[in-house]
Write a structure and sequence with these properties.
Elements lengths: L1 E5 L3 H13 L3 E5 L2 H10 L4 E5 L7 H10 L6 E5 L4 H10 L3 E4 L4 H17 L6 E3 L2 E4 L4 E4 L2 E4 L2 H12 L7 H9 L7 H17 L4 E6 L3 E6 L4
Parallel strand pairs: 1-2, 1-3, 3-4, 4-5
Antiparallel strand pairs: 6-7, 7-8, 8-9, 10-11
Helix pairs in contact: 6-8
């Protein structure tokens, strides 16, 4: 399980990271809100431990922005603010749990075990995988070696269509009818643009999956892993 730990207290951050690593977790650490924002948006994690009071963007703002961006992994806020109003604010922002400082490491580990079980049980049964890509239609999230992205609606529909028919040619007519509908006024240039944009997303994720164009038959995915 990969955990993103965001804590500006260097000593506490090192202590937590050491305990988690000894328990077998993979830990990535950040010490300020701006660095945390980059990690949250560009690198995948299974769970986020997020300090509420940070230099730069605070934990509440980061939580709201993460949820707005379609990031669905559990977020556990770490904070010394322990009033009911503080907890409600954090949970309303999109946090899944709230741990008040100072806390015992045993409590933190127990919370992580609970969320680890929930993460496995809530795994999207409709996830599509091909090569080094995985796609979750329920949240339009495409993941590859370099991270994950939440796709706009049309791009999401296109990648889902290609993944559900991996290594099978999909004609322009099928793409047109499935994504825009037979009555839409869409030209070949529009389809070309969306194919190009999808290729850009795959390249950004550093995926070895390619969209092949076979003249007369259409488009299909191929996976050419480097040896």
């Amino acid at each position: 399980m990969k955990i993103l730990l965001v804590e500006d207290n260097v000593s506490l951050c090192r202590n937590i990271a050491s305990v988690l690593q000894n328990e077998g977790y993979t830990v990535v650490t950040c010490s300020n809100g701006n660095e945390a924002e980059f990690q949250m948006l560009n690198n995948s994690s299974d769970l986020i431990l997020l300090d509420r009071m940070l230099p730069g963007k605070d934990g509440i703002t980061l939580t709201r922005e993460a949820r707005a961006a379609g990031i669905t992994v559990p977020i556990l806020l770490l904070t010394a603010l322990d009033t009911l109003g503080d907890k409600v604010t954090g949970l309303d922002a999109g946090a899944d749990d709230y741990i008040v400082k100072p806390f015992a490491m045993e409590e933190l580990l127990a919370r992580l075990r609970i969320w680890s079980r929930r993460t496995v049980s809530l795994e999207d049964p409709g996830e599509l995988c091909f090569g080094d890509l995985s796609y979750r239609p329920s949240v339009r999230q495409l993941s590859g070696p370099a991270g994950k992205e939440v796709l706009p609606k049309r791009l999401a529909q296109l990648i889902e269509l290609l993944l559900r028919n991996a290594e099978v040619p999909i004609t322009r007519n099928v793409i047109f009818n499935r994504i825009w509908g037979p009555d839409a006024e869409v030209t070949d240039a529009v389809i070309d643009t969306y194919i190009h944009l999808t290729r850009q997303r795959l390249a950004h994720l550093q995926s070895a999956v390619k969209i092949q164009n076979s003249r007369g038959t259409g488009y299909q995915l191929s996976y050419e892993r480097e040896l």
